[in-house]
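In response to a reviewer's request, we include the raw inputs and outputs for one of the modeled complexes. The two entities were modeled together in a single run.
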Amino acid sequence: MTDPAQATQVATEASATIYWLATAIFVLAYAVIVSEKVHKTKVALVGAALMIGLRILTQHEAFHSEHFGIDYNVIFLLISMMIIINVMARSGVLEWVAIRSAKVAQGRPFTLMATFAVLTAIASAVLDNVTTVLLLAPVILLITDELDVDPVPFLIVEALASNIGGTATLIGDPPNMMIASKAKYGFMDFIIHLTPVVVVIMIAFVVVMKVLFGRKLKVSEVNRLRVMAMDESRLIRNPVLMKKSLVVMGLTVAGFALHGVLHLEPATIAFTGAAVLLLISGEHPHHILAEVEWTTVFFFMGLFIMVGGLVKVGMIRDLSQFVIDVTKPTDQSLMTTTMVMLWFSAIASTIVDNVPFVAAINPLVLDMANTIFHHGGADPAALPVATLHHPVLEPLWWSLALGASLGGNGTLIGASANVIIVGMAERAGRRISFMKFMAYGVPVMVMTLILSSLYVWLRYY
Amino acid sequence: MLVRYAMVEEPLQVSPKTGLRDMLDLLLQSNQDTVAVVEADGRLVGVVGAHDVLRMIVPLYVDMDEALAALIHDGYFEERFASLKGVTAADIVNTQVDTVAPNNTLIQAATLFLTHHRHALPVVEGGKHVGMITRRSLFKRVSEKLSSNSG
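The model returned the following structure tokens for the whole complex.
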């Protein structure tokens, strides 16, 4: 017979090994992702395989548990939106709108820059940021070339506006999709809580642009008339597909907004939209599905499993306890925790991808909520909505969303949109150095965070 | 037949310092569209063709979105072309070039023409540029040979 005390000790030692093993896998993977020595998707998948292969997670937990494994709410929302957006993007509609806006701005450089910033922000709130800048940056290069002005400020403004705009909605930025899934928020919650502050931030952003560039940008009358003479109808490649995709996109967004009536989750709405568009597009699904960014999708899958391992061994619980000890939240107010969350998320997101960051912080918030509101007595994986949407907890979610998205503006590696823009500028013969980007990015990031702090403070405290 | 028997009779060749205008004159006076850029010691630097001149003129954002070309003002091509005045062969030479050896077979050259979308291939022997084979010179020699055989 085995001594029960001895058996317990063996079990504790085994779980301690597993605890540090899971932590080591995660920290190492995170470090390699930050170093950019190996592609992040490869790292995430190897990390995930280790979590399962070393029995830190069971296969069932990794593939089928919402809490320890892949969050299919996010995966299907992501894939479905990619399908709808790719079909829409191919029609040329965004480029058409961009040239239209340039003509409305009458080719006046500052008006144009501001118009593009607003257009980019709105487009990024609906589309993903990368697609938005991939479509708009060539148009900006065309217009600045025709106007004979330096494209670099326009391009940087484009990246910054895209990150700001993406913050506004549930579908604007992947971290928001992840927060929505874990906190059980709908599309309208984001519109009510985040869109107003993003609008304020955009207004302030345009004012700053005016101060920085208002006087510097000059164009000749001849060049201005060139923009006015552009025939944007030449950019519509497939009018029929454009109409179909716009209708589907419109209905999908309406479906998100009608969550209160339909009671369908965002992933269901987007999945339906994507399926309908595939059916009516008249194109072979092979072409449309081939354009889904599978690399990103698999990165998310690997990441969810890696974070799941950390949650299961209790690492996240210990981190959550640490945050509680430091910021001393009560069930009456999370003010300090919220402000720390806002700024910490932002600073972390300037260096690392905000997706793995939010993936790890989400379960931490759930665990904190469990400790604060249920004294650790509930299951953090299945907290009641009353707890998730508790007025005291709510500002913490919104601070995470604001910090993680707006922090991306700080450096050129802070967000995918920045990396794309810098790459495009380089291909067009205009190198944007790390420091040059920061010279614009850091002040804008700090300004947007100050406005966010004010907003959170005024609205929730 | 080997590549050495199907080369261009008078291959075009310039030094890296040759100006763009002189290169274009050379091209326009011949019926070829590629010129080899060769160092004084006979070493091949690369080739310049109409493609490389177009690359200097067509802006890169059009590569990202071809439809945008329709919105560029008339006269843009001429302006950009005029601005290339000081450009030399060294500035635009394409160094990522496939080459063949004189004793390669015609099917080897033909394969490169087809799969790498080349119109002309420099012929290199012992590191030195010895000539050029084009799609045109290849067909010319083969059909000459066939007619002489049948005749």
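As requested, we also summarize the result in words. The first strand of chain B starts at residue 13 and ends at 14. Helices of chain B lie at 20-29, 50-57, 60-64, 76-82, 89-92, 106-115, 135-150.
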